[in-house]
């Protein structure tokens, strides 16, 4: 068992925050089937650690992953309930669907044929989910392609029909105008009618990402597939604003992840001293710096150079100079009493101050998803209460 005292940099995961967020989502969706997305290393939180916190949770029915490797890791972490494979799998690896008892999302005829033949030979019935193209134009099949897929389903006893039908919204997070989402939902319903006419009517339907689950009850169907909200983050400022304008409560989600490091060196600088590569920062008066053993390799973006601040002893300490591959320098002139190996907060709370993933995203001109997903898998994750 890892202890945070063993590390110079570590990530803390709050079990209570995770369970709070699941309860909030379950309440919003009236207990619909809940498929928690753990792709991208559980949005940077650590796949095996998150699975360990979910494995006995009574309200989580599915995990969704992007890759076979993630699915295998979930099984190895002890998950025995359904896993939906969202992303592609090479045609010649169709037998792994049976080996690891997966429910693949289908958008490729060649793969579906191979899967049908493989499952027929094994005498196994396979649950699949047909991905419908409604306007995002990523993975998914059009209505014109649907008869060819229906023919494959009819040909293979192991397939019978898709267990699920799904889609993904293109513009439900980044705007308070949801006309395009309404268009996609209308298209989805029309395609479901076409599926029924072809006698491949699904048992369950699922369209709702975090934003859709929060904002639109009519997208919930039989299952919802939340991602970032499970980890305590709003999908966007627009989603938060839309929800609050409708009278929604403020304290819905709690961030699960905090990121800490330690001071590994203290330096006193004279006025007119340059800091870091490129001499991008110059002191105007005597200053005190703390050296931190994290950088862009660890997921602390180079774009945060001379932009962000960290928290030391409950005080803000600005980043000075360029963030390096494994080192960042911060100004602790105004943070009294800082000592070697003192704890530093990169994401999270220290006293009355907080640094959020959303703040880092603003400074780096990106989104909270990317800030979290790019946290290095090599950084130890520690589950706390």
The largest sheet has its strands arranged as 2-3-4-5-6-7-8-9
Categorize the overall geometry.
Answer: elongated
Q: What is the average of the pLDDT values?
A: 96
Radius of gyration: 24 Å
Write out the CATH superfamily name of the largest domain: Alanine racemase
The CATH C-level class name of the largest domain: Alpha Beta
Largest sheet: 8 strands, parallel, barrel
Q: Please bin the fraction of helical residues.
A: 25-40%
The tally of beta strands, per DSSP, is 20
Task: State the CATH architecture of the largest domain.
Answer: Alpha-Beta Barrel
How many domains? The number is 2
Q: What would you say this structure looks like, in words?
A:
By secondary structure, this protein is of the alpha/beta class. It folds into 2 domains: 15-245, TIM Barrel, CATH 3.20.20; 257-384, Lyase, Ornithine Decarboxylase, Chain A, domain 1. The protein is 29% helix and 22% strand. The protein contains 12 helices and 20 strands. It has helices spanning 15-28, 39-43, 47-54, 68-76, 95-99, 109-122, 146-155, 179-197, 210-215, 237-245, 357-364, 368-373, and strands spanning 9-14, 33-37, 62-65, 83-85, 102-106, 129-131, 164-166, 204-208, 223-224, 257-262, 265-269, 274-275, 281-282, 287-292, 309-312, 315-318, 328-331, 343-350, 353-355, 381-384. The strands form 4 sheets. An 8-stranded parallel barrel has the order 2-3-4-5-6-7-8-9. Helix 8 links the parallel strand 7 and strand 8 (204-208). The longest helix has 19 residues, at 179-197. It is elongated. The chain starts with 8 loop residues before the first strand and ends with a strand. The model has no long low-confidence stretch (mean pLDDT 96).
């Amino acid at each position: 068992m890892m202890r945070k005292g063993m590390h110079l940099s570590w990530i803390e995961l709050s079990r209570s925050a995770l369970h709070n967020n699941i309860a909030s989502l379950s309440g919003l969706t009236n207990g619909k089937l809940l498929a928690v997305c753990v792709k991208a290393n559980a949005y940077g939180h650590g796949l095996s650690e998150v699975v360990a916190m979910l494995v006995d949770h009574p309200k989580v029915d599915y995990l969704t992953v992007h890759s076979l490797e993630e699915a295998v890791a979930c099984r190895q972490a002890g998950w025995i309930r359904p896993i939906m494979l969202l992303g592609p799998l090479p045609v010649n690896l169709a037998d792994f669907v049976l080996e690891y008892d997966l429910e693949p999302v289908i958008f490729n005829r060649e793969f579906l044929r191979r899967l049908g033949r493989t499952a027929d030979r094994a005498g196994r019935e396979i649950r699949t989910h047909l991905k419908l193209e409604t306007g995002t134009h990523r993975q998914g099949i059009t209505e014109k392609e649907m008869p060819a897929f229906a023919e494959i389903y009819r040909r293979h006893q192991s397939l019978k029909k898709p267990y699920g039908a799904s889609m993904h919204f293109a513009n439900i997070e980044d705007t308070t105008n949801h006309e395009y989402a309404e268009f996609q939902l209308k298209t989805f319903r029309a395609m479901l009618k076409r599926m029924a006419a072809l006698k491949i009517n699904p048992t369950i339907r699922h369209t709702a990402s975090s934003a859709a689950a929060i904002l639109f009850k009519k997208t919930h169907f039989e299952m919802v597939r939340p991602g970032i909200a499970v980890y305590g983050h709003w999908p966007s400022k627009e989603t938060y604003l839309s929800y609050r304008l409708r009278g929604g409560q403020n304290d819905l989600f709690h961030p699960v992840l905090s990121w800490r490091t330690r001071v590994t060196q203290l330096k006193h600088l004279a006025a007119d001293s340059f800091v870091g590569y490129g001499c991008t920062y110059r002191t105007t008066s005597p200053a005190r710096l703390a050296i931190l053993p994290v950088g862009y390799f660890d997921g602390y973006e180079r774009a945060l150079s001379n932009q962000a601040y960290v928290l030391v002893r409950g005080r803000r300490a600005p980043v000075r100079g360029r963030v390096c591959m494994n080192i960042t320098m911060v100004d602790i002139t105004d943070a009294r009493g800082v000592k070697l190996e003192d704890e530093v907060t990169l994401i999270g709370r220290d006293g009355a101050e907080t640094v959020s993933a959303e703040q880092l995203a603003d400074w780096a001109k990106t989104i909270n998803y990317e800030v979290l997903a790019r946290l290095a898998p090599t950084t130890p994750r520690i589950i706390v209460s």
